[in-house]
Amino acid sequence: MATPIAYQANLPAVPDWLNKGDNGWQLAAATLVGMQSMPGLVVLYGSIVKKKWAVNSAFMALYAFAAALIVWVLVGFRMAFGERLLPFWGKAGPALSQGYLVGRARMLATPHHFRNGTLEKGMEEPFYPQASLVYFEFTFAAITLILLAGSVLGRMNIKAWMAFVPLWLIFSYTVGAFSLWGGGFLFHWGVIDYSGGYVIHLASGISGFTAAYWVGPRLKSDRERFSPNNILLMLTGAGLLWLGWSGFNGGAPYAANITSSVAVLNTHVCAATSLLTWTCLDVAFFGKPSVIGAVQGMMTGLVCITPGAGLVQTWAAIVMGILAGIIPWISMMILHKKSALLQKVDDTLAVFHTHAVAGILGGLLTGLLAEPSLCRLILPVPGSKGTAYGGGFLQLVKQVVGALFIIGWNLVSTTAILLAIARFTPLRMPDDQLMIGDDAAHGEEAYALWGDGERYDATRQVTMMLADDSRHPMRDTNTARGLTIQL
């Protein structure tokens, strides 16, 4: 039977190895993940903070997205998914030439061998161009940095942040990505991280907490009262983040296959379960549901399912969602108040609890609940399965060791990067700028109203006078932005 014309090779644009469905889904998944950052987290960050920090918070996310892309194509992609340099790092190199990008996607360090050296499982080679893989993996690198930023909102010097983003991507993110995904030692040992519970969420939570320690706290007044400036807009950003997770976990198999379908369903089931669990705890202990709490519960559910989204059964996703709503809630609402260290470190958006705690939880539950037949569909090490299915205690040990490696590397690398940057520019804005916020940091404000953080000088305000048609309001050309209504 002849192959339909739509599926025939048409050189050079459609080589015989190109699967149009896989390529279309991978580009769509990459776009969904990109939209989680831009505009998802840009909107969420700009609205979940105090009014005076709306512009700065949104800009930190916007800058990270743009800067990460340039660093990624210059050196980052091949350090994370290229030829092996060290057991935990790939060789740096550009992903810019036509010859490299239009060829079939390949992860050169992923072939898995028996101990005697014979090949057990071949190289990871998706059925689409390298350009699709480069862009898809970039969106993961970018969102990791933006999630990290949530720990230092409301006080980090923007110049220090601009230096931190490329350095952290090169010296921290690429190490975790290569070790667990690109063919590094944890990849070949059989540590399971389906779509970034460790590489993205544990890394951003630990690095964010470390950065918050070195940058220092917000002003006391900001720590005591940091109410969102627009909760409805915050929900818009949260909605983009939630639905964008379809690409996050659905694109991880590098194909439009059975695993991607299972992963998408499990992702949303776990997120919904966690949100409801968190909300029930808020009602039980505080007497009323919290919208911000619901968003936190949504986030912990999405993070928890990520290490095993395509590897666990849907009933297990519900179990993971329940635990994702309980354990991070306890760590945030109870343990945080009892720990001197957690009290001291000013983690603005509680990234440690929502990403590090939930990421470790998801990784351990994956090691326990990964279903053998689902594992066979995608995992690089044959025979991988959860402890509950006969995988033995060793799989949990692997999950713990993988988590400890990510924790240790990110703690050390983030500390080293920030201390190096501090030699050239302060990590924290001075207090006089912190009192003002966006106007001091950027010369811009989110809303054209006088209020929290704006410099107040009565001599510069607009004076509106009621007069007849022959008279006009007196206006100082150096007035503050917006209209001040003086009652």
Q: What attributes characterize this protein structure?
A:
two-stranded antiparallel sheet; 487 residues; mainly alpha
Mean pLDDT: 89
Which runs of at least 5 residues are low in confidence (pLDDT < 50)? 458-487
Q: Biggest β-sheet, characterized?
A: 2 strands, antiparallel
Distance between the termini: 83 Å
What is this structure, in a nutshell?
Helix content is 61%, strand content 2%. The protein has helices at 20-48, 54-81, 98-101, 130-149, 158-182, 185-189, 197-215, 220-224, 231-250, 258-286, 291-305, 314-338, 340-344, 351-369, 372-378, 393-422, 431-436, 438-442, and strands spanning 84-86, 89-90, 112-113, 119-121.
What can you see in these coordinates?
Strands 1-2 form a two-stranded antiparallel ribbon. The protein has a two-stranded antiparallel sheet with strand order 3-4. It has helices spanning 20-48, 54-81, 98-101, 130-149, 158-182, 185-189, 197-215, 220-224, 231-250, 258-286, 291-305, 314-338, 340-344, 351-369, 372-378, 393-422, 431-436, 438-442, and strands at 84-86, 89-90, 112-113, 119-121. A hairpin with a 2-residue loop joins strand 1 and strand 2. Mean pLDDT is 89; it is low at 458-487. The protein is globular, with a radius of gyration of 24 Å. The protein starts with 19 loop residues before the first helix and ends in a 45-residue tail after the last helix. It is an all-alpha fold. The longest helix is centred in the last third of the chain and has 30 residues, at 393-422.
